[in-house]
Amino acid sequence: MDSETPINRCIEVKKSTKTFLLRRIKLLAAGVVLLSLAGYLGTVYWMFELTSHFKVQYLALSLFCALVFSWARLWRWASLGLLGIVLNGSVVLSWYVPNTETAAQNPHLSVLLANVNIRNKNYSALLELVKTENPAILIVQEANAGWIKQLQMLDKWPYRVAPPKSYGFGTVIVSRFPFEQTQILSLGTGGRESILVKIKINGKLISLLTTHPLPPISQELFRHRNSQLFAANSVIKQLSTPKILIGDLNISMWSPVYSKLLSNTGLVNARQGFGILPTWPTTLPFLMIPIDHCLISSDIKVVNIRTARRIGSDHLPLIVELAI
User: Fold this and answer.
1) 143 — pLDDT class (breaks 50, 70, 90)
2) CATH label of the domain that carries residue 287
3) Interval 130-141 mean pLDDT
4) 308 — phi, psi (to 5°)?
5) Is 101 part of a structural domain of the chain?
6) Each residue of 105-121: pLDDT tens digit?
7) C-alpha pair distances (Å), 14 with each of 8, 10, 83, 186, 247
């Protein structure tokens, strides 16, 4: 009997360890479902909205929980994992469904959006990317005097708009095409400058509005961001098509605020059919979410959209090729 004691103890340790781990995974599965549902209350409170952005991560965790519970034959808990898969998988996988109106032609307009991060001084990485990709329009956000000086080296992009606040923290547009019209706008209550330009492409006058609202990391900043987004919405609705709203909008496609924004403007996300394309934060790859967007009117077709290589920022650049 004494010789069996260590074996029995080992079995008991394994059982207790298994019980401990399963309890933690049960909590994880329940937490994931609660967070998945909390995001739908995102118009009410900023913390609820923050939970809406991590659908890909919730999907992965739900799949993990469902597999563990199936292995342990805990079928009721496995169904909870399945609920998490359904809640998140349906909204994640829909972005991979091809858009039947995706253009099968050469692009007329290519746009490169880069939130460079104001603390980033890796100027050469962006300049090399621009020269490689050769976009018609470059939009740089979180620019400052240092970035504006470096952008002057792009002599093949002679047209530029750099509002006063861009020299401290703002947005700059650089273009190979002349601007038919430029307008600096103060949208919402956040105090950040937005830029509206009109450019003639393929015989059509295109309106492009770029904005960069504050990150919604408190209730006050949440209100400021929403104020700026819905002010941009009002501007977009008054413009004739074709029209583009582009920038680091500090919101993901799964936020109910985002859904409301698009339902009011009639714009569509250029991502549709091309996948999630997460852009931030590059410092935490497993938590990356899509907050940099190109929203277009329905008369514009998407030839391609993708993220570019890292440029020293916490954001990946977004490259969009459009047919007008």
Assistant:
1) very high
2) 3.60.10.10
3) 97
4) -100, 180
5) no
6) 677 899 999 999 999 99
7) 10, 6, 29, 63, 52
- Taking the whole predicted model, whether its pTM rises above 0.85 is answered as yes
For 9-23, 29-43, 86-100, 156-170, which range has the lowest pLDDT when averaged over its residues? Answer: 9-23
Rg of the chain over Cα atoms, rounded to whole angstroms, equals 23
Where among 93, 128, 160 does a domain terminate? 93
| pLDDT above 50: residue 15 | yes
Percent of the chain with pLDDT over 90: 82
**Which residue among 42, 63, 93 closes a domain?**
93
Cis peptide before 281 (omega within 30 of 0): yes
**Euclidean distance between CA atoms 265 and 238, whole angstroms:** 10
What is the pLDDT at residue 271? 96
> For residue 101, what are its two tokens?
């109106």
